[in-house]
Amino acid sequence: MIKNSSVYIVLWILIQLLVEINGQMRNFKPKFHDDHLRRYLHTATFINSNLYILGGRSNYDNDTGKQFFYYKFDAPLYVNNMYWNNETSINIVPSHRGAAAVNGGTNNEKLILYTGNSDNFTDPLIYSFDIRTNLWTSLKTTNNDIIIGKNQLQGVVDHKKKMYLFGGRATNNIDGDLNDMLILDTINLSWKKGNSINAPSPRRNYGATFLPNNNNIIYIGGVNGGDHLPLDEVYLYDTINDVWSKKMTSGKIPSKRDAFSAVLGLDGNRVIIFGGFGISSKDALYVLNLTNFEWKVPFVIGEIPASRYWHKANVISDYMVVTFGTGYENSNDSDVLFLDIKNNDMYEWSHIFDPVPSKSRVQSITPSTSNINNSSNKLVIIYSVIGSLIGGICLLVGIFILRKWNKNNKVNNIPDGKEEGVIAGQDVKPTN
Fold it and tell me: Of 48, 86, 100, 260, which one has the fewest beta carbons inside 10 Å?
C-alpha cells in the first residue's frame, strides 16, 4: 500500500513539473461572439506583477461586465498562449463599464474601484480588492455629499495614494460631460473636490497619466458632447498646489481623438498615446516630449497592429501592454498587444513579453535596422519547446514505471498453482 502511494506521489510531482516547465497554467481565456464587438470600457490595474481586468462591456455577452481575472507577468510569454486566472466567482462588484480603478491603500496592495454608478443607490460607489486576502469589500467613505456619479473617465493615483477623477460623463443622463475634479484619499477614505479655476473644458474618454517628476497629472484630448477635442493643447493639474495650467504643443500634432490610451515612458520624460475612435493604424501611435511638449511619430518595427479604442494600456517591465478594446479583428490581432518601449529611438511591436531582457537584446536595437530577429525571443520559444519535451519525457517515464510496478504487483499476488506467467525472469508452470 505504501509503495503504491509513493508511486502516485512521484507521478503527481512529475505532472506538476511538466506544468511548471511549460509556464504558468491559466484557466481562462476570454472569448467573444463578434470580432468587432469585444471587451471594452473595462479597467486594467497593475499590482505586484499582476494585471487585473475587471468589468467592461461586450454587446453579445451580458456577463462581461461581471468578469474579473488577472495575469501574473513574472515570466516570458507568447501572447497567443496567454491564459488568465479567473476570479469571477469571488467578485462582488455589480456589472459595470466605463469605471476607474487604481492601485491604492496603505500597502499598495489594493485595487480601488470607482464604479461611477452612484445613481443606483442600492450599490456602493467604491470597492476595494485586497490581493493578499483575495477579498472584495465595499468601502464606506466620508464627505459623500460632494460626489456625483460619472463614468468614461480615467482614474489616476499619486505618491500619497490619492485617486483623482476628472471629468467624465454624468450617469444621471442629465448633466452630460463634466469637468470637475473629485479626489479620494484611498487610505483615509475621504472625498474632496479639486480646484476648478482654469480647468479643461468638460470631456470624457480622454488620456491621462501621473508625472512623478513634478507631481502633475497630464490630461490629453477626449470628447465633449459630440466634439472631439484637439491635441495641440494639453492640461496639467498640480496635485501638490491644486492648480491647473495649459501647455500648447508643437511638432507632428496627432489628429483629434478620444477613447485612446496614454502611458508615461520609462524615462519619465515622454507620454505615449495609442489608438482612439476612428483612428487608423498609421495614425495610432504618438509620443509627446514633456521637456518641450513636442509631438512626434516614433520609429517602430515589428508587425503593426490595427488601431483600437476603449482599450487600456499599462507599463509593465519594458513594455506598454495594451488590453482588449474594440475596433480590431481578433483574426488579425491579439486581444493583448506588447510594445517594447525601452529604446526611445525605436519601439518594437512584439508577440513575446520578456520581463528580463538580455543585455544583447537591448544593444541589438538600432534605428537603421528595418527587420530585426530578436534572439532573446527565439530563446524563449526554444526553451519552452525543450521544457515541454523534458516534461513530456518525465511524464512518460513516470507512467511507464507505474504500469510496470502494477504489472509486477499483480504477478506477485498470483496464488500458487492458479496461473502461469513470468516472475523475476523465470518460467512458472502450473503444477499438476
Answer: 48
User: What confidence tier does 86 reach under pLDDT thresholds 50, 70, 90?
Assistant: very high
Q: How many CA atoms lie within 13 A of 336 on its CB side?
A: 27
Structural Rg of the chain based on CA atoms: 27
Q: For 138, what's the count of Cα atoms within 13 Å in the CB-facing half-sphere?
A: 8
The CA-CA-CA angle for residues 271, 338, 372, to 5°, reads 100
Residue 178, C-alpha cell as written in the block: 463634466
> Tell me, what DSSP letter sits at residue 188?
T
Distances (CA, A) of 160 to 104, 142, 148, 213, 236: 9, 18, 23, 14, 18
Q: Is pTM, for the whole model, over 0.85? A: no
**Model confidence at 375: pLDDT above 60:** no
Strands 77-78, 100-104: pairing kind: unpaired
Grid cell digits, residue 334: 491579439
DSSP letters spanning 76-132: -EEGGG--BEE-GGG--SPP-SS-EEEEESTTS-EEEEE---TTSTTS-SEEEEETT
φ, ψ dihedrals at 359, nearest 5° = -60, -40
Residues linked to residue 272 through DSSP beta bridges, in sequence order? 263, 287
